[in-house]
Design a protein that fits this description.
Shape: globular
Strand order of the largest sheet: 1-2
Largest sheet: 2 strands, antiparallel
Number of helices: 6
Distance between the termini: 15 Å
Oligomer: single chain
């Protein structure tokens, strides 16, 4: 499992750390009952643009959260190290919003939903490769 990189990193990963903290806080809020997972998760069958953002910060359980955050750190360090925090934040949110919008449009009329930062992590992995 990668925990460091030998790629030259030109920027400290402030945004990566901030997104990890935001994901952990959203998970803690959901666990404490302060955040409704049903309201923040991406629901199929309708179009709700706010869910395109909020669902990226919700996770199903501790394993889901820890797995996503471990790999977010691993690849976020590399990508943000090259792009800087502003561009990295745009890329991070852009991947998540685009994936959620496409998923919700493709799933009109269906039941179910999704949550988590996995699509973002996969996108950042592709960029870092």
């Amino acid at each position: 499992f990668p925990i460091n990189t030998d790629a030259p990193v030109y920027h400290f990963p402030w945004a990566t750390i901030s997104f990890i903290v935001a994901n952990c806080l959203a998970f803690a809020g959901a666990e404490a009952g302060a955040i409704s997972v049903d309201e923040w998760a991406l629901q199929s069958g309708h179009i709700a643009p706010w869910e395109w953002v909020t669902s990226n910060f919700m996770h199903e359980g501790y394993g889901h959260l820890l797995g996503n955050m471990f790999f977010l750190w691993s690849v976020g360090l590399i990508v943000e190290g090259k792009l800087g925090w502003r561009m990295f934040s745009l890329v991070y949110l852009g991947i998540g919003i685009t994936q959620c919008a496409l998923e919700q449009i493709c799933m009109l009329g269906a039941d179910g939903g999704s949550l988590g930062a996995s699509s973002i992590v996969f996108g950042l992995t592709a960029i870092s490769l």
